[in-house]
Design brief:
The protein has 11 helices and 14 strands. It is of the alpha/beta class and about 325 residues long. The protein has 2 domains: about 190 residues, no CATH class; about 110 residues, Dihydrodipicolinate Reductase, domain 2 (2-Layer Sandwich). The chain has an 8-stranded mixed β-sheet with strand order 1-4-5-3-2-6-7-8, sandwiched between helices. It has a 6-stranded mixed β-sheet with strand order 10-9-11-12-13-14, covered by helices on one side. The relative contact order is 0.11.
């Protein structure tokens, strides 16, 4: 199986000549009639973005995350550095580099969105020099965002202190990260964002918009249990959705409701269900399936039954990145 470095697109170049090679790449693209950034527009770069593909990343997975990052960077022109650690380096000591670039034309020739990738493969022996090389590859005076994908342990990731302290946001997907990733004492824990929470934005908005029509005392009175059920494909999403509800209504008046997570076998793999149970006749039920996009609200808070069809979805990966980074 090829290494993820070899599987990713790009032109291999000397590490010492990355900047020169990028300039030559764009000059060659322009000479061939392709879309390239103008020499004086600093490539219109908006952000620095580091995608760190951990040792658990397989080649197919690496390509998926590369394409996700590329789709994001077409909306937010970026200088992207992709880090590819070597699992079996056979005593290697050198860092290898690739470069890749794309420009998309908008409604006019002057409306160009360009993205540059620098892909670095590094063995354990080169690890002490990695942060210095990354800093050279990044654009100065632009915010840095860091996405750690499929790392093996939180402790090992914590060694990348430059990235963890300089990044404006640190992106972690708790569905595939080590169990302690969201509670680990990172150098700047306030900057850590969970991509699972970001993916759930449409679900959180739909639930929030429906429930906001009722006064909090009406929602809370008599509540004794909140249950979130999830299908087999949405384990992390169910856990995070329950945490969001607990944060919003965890102290519902003086009646502290019980919060339960149900790995339901009665739901489709991509299904969700939220239930509020009350001591009286009130009830609230929401059920949805991401696969078919259909959901339904059923509720009676003492003013009559409401049944409302709705849609349900999760954010696409590139949109989840921007949600976690900027909001």
């Amino acid at each position: 199986m090829p290494s993820i470095f070899n599987a990713l697109p790009g032109i291999e170049v000397p590490v010492s000549g990355i900047s020169k090679s990028l300039a030559e790449m764009w000059a060659s693209t322009a000479a061939g009639g392709g879309a390239a950034p103008a020499a004086d527009d600093a490539k219109a770069t908006q952000v620095n973005f580091v995608l760190h593909l951990g040792l658990q990343t397989k080649t197919d997975d690496a390509l998926v995350q590369f394409r996700t990052t590329l789709a994001f960077a077409k909306r937010y022109p970026s200088r992207v550095v992709v880090l590819c650690p070597l699992n079996d380096d056979a005593g290697a000591t050198e860092i290898k580099a690739k470069i890749y670039g794309e420009c998309d034309l908008g409604k006019s020739k002057s409306d160009k969105r360009c993205v540059e990738f620098v892909i670095l493969s590094y063995p354990r022996a080169a690890r002490p020099h990695l942060e210095n090389q990354v800093s050279i590859c990044l654009s100065t005076d632009l915010p840095l965002y860091y996405w750690a994908h499929r790392f093996t342990t939180s402790v090992k990731l914590a060694d990348y202190r430059y990235l963890l302290t300089q990044a404006k946001r640190i992106l972690i997907d708790s569905a595939i990260a080590p169990a302690d990733a969201m509670t680990f004492p990172w150098p700047r824990p306030e900057n850590v964002r969970d991509l699972v929470y970001a993916r759930l934005l449409p679900v959180r908005q739909s639930l929030g918009q429906f429930l906001s029509r009722y006064p909090m005392d009406v929602l809370c009175s008599g509540m004794n249990k909140v249950t979130v059920a999830h299908g087999s494909a949405e384990v992390a999403e169910g856990r995070v959705l329950l945490g969001w509800l607990k944060d919003r209504i965890g102290k519902c008046g003086e009646n502290r409701a019980e919060f339960l997570l149900d790995s339901s076998t009665n739901l489709a793999p991509t299904g969700f269900a939220v239930t509020f149970a009350y001591s009286g006749k009130k009830y609230f039920r929401w059920r949805g399936n991401v696969a078919d996009g259909h959901a339904q609200f059923e509720a009676d808070f003492g003013t009559g039954e409401t049944v409302l069809p709705a849609s349900v979805s999760l954010l696409p990966p590139e949109n989840a990145l921007s949600e976690a980074m900027f909001f």
